[in-house]
Amino acid sequence: MTISMYEASVPVFSARLKALSTVLATAEQNAVERKIDPQVFLTSRLAPDMYALTRQVQIATDHAKGAPSRLAGREVPKYEDNEASFADLEARIAKTVAHLATFSAADIDGSDDRMIELKLGGREMSMSGMQYLLHLAMPNFYFHLTTAYDILRHNGVPLGKATFLGAR
After folding, report:
1. CA-to-CA distance for 149 and 118, rounded, in angstroms?
2. In Å, how far from its chain's centre is CA 33?
């Protein structure tokens, strides 16, 4: 059986981003309840050399919008990366989910052999669509998604696996 590149990407990105939205809403509510300035959470990081929560969300959405766009041969939408509040991050996620909704299986299925050319860290890369999705886009997406969750959990936000998975 052949993997559907669409099913392995768009619905996964969309579901995980919706769960991230719930994670962020929980964090914002927790900040209010605990009388913590939301900027404490938004600027928190797990280690001094890691990105803060806001940047983690930005990068996760970048992978979610970039992968299907590249696989479909479309231009990747550019975002300003100027989010400064939970509301801004929620809007970015909503914009990304709306972008994902513009793709159909016909746009992406069959892209497993399409050559994806991109620049990462000043280095040009070329790989098949399947390699790109499974070995670059998805791992990076999950890394930043999980790191955002971990930052909030580390700061005492009452989150669990069900929230991360979108079951709550």
Report:
1. 28
2. 27
